[in-house]
Amino acid sequence: MTREARGPKEGDFITIKSYKHDGSLHRTWRDTMVLKTSENAVIGVNDHTLVTEDDGRRWVTREPAIVYFHKHYWFNIVAMIRDNGVSYYCNLASPYVMDKEALKYIDYDLDVKVFPDGEKRLLDVDEYEDFSQRWHYGAETDRILKANVLTLVDWINHQKGPFSQAYVDLWYQRYQELLRRSNDQ
């Protein structure tokens, strides 16, 4: 079985590509380190990762961030590890697909930001409404996304998965171990 057929393994670097509903490329992250893959999920880390916007603008992430993607949930989660605590940026998005080029998903505009003190904000509602009409998301997509907002908020409220400090600590520690191992080689 080829590496592409079984997917990336721990320590590999992948590209992440987000698209809009019309198929246009929205944003690309280069060199996300894979921390874990399973049948349904990918956990990785971005740390000073090059990001390219659809208009060609480029920037580099400022702090380490644990990223979580799932094949069944319509969201992905970015846990940004900052000096004042962990902040979360959650994209309402299609479940991911992986091919030999990249991990890919469709970004559906709505975002939930969680601050270190636990405050939650739903962002980009106007953008979601605009794009929903422009690209005809449809009633089924709208229903799925709204149901997944409720799931996401439940995860946040119950500190499930990526919203647990123990989860962030575990995966950040694993990232540091992999970095040390690669530096020792």
Describe the SSE topology.
Layout: H1 3-6, E1 13-19, E2 25-37, E3 41-46, E4 50-53, E5 58-60, E6 65-70, E7 75-82, E8 85-93, E9 97-98, E10 103-114, E11 120-123, H2 125-135, H3 138-157, H4 165-184
Task: Write up what this structure looks like.
This protein is of the alpha+beta class and 185 residues long. 30% of the residues lie in helices and 40% in strands. The protein contains four helices and eleven strands, in the order αβββββββββββααα. It has helices at 3-6, 125-135, 138-157, 165-184, and strands at 13-19, 25-37, 41-46, 50-53, 58-60, 65-70, 75-82, 85-93, 97-98, 103-114, 120-123. The protein has a seven-stranded mixed β-barrel with strand order 1-2-3-6-7-8-10. β1 and β2 form a beta hairpin. The radius of gyration is 16 Å and the shape is globular. The model has no long low-confidence stretch (mean pLDDT 94). It holds the Pfam family DUF402. This is DUF402 domain-containing protein. Keywords: Hydrolase, Magnesium, Metal-binding. Residues 22-160 form the DUF402 domain.
Task: Summarize it.
Keywords: Hydrolase, Magnesium, Metal-binding. By secondary structure, this protein is α+β, with helices and mostly antiparallel strands.
End-to-end CA span? 27 Å
SSE ordering? HEEEEEEEEEEEHHH
Tell me about the largest β-sheet.
Answer: 7 strands, mixed, barrel
Count, helices:
4
Protein structure class: alpha+beta
Question: What is the topology, as strand order, of the major beta sheet?
Answer: 1-2-3-6-7-8-10
Strand content: 35-45%
Overall residue-averaged pLDDT value:
94
What is the percent of helical residues? 25-40%
Number of strands: 11
Shape: globular
Low-confidence stretches: none
Mind telling me the C-alpha Rg? 16 Å
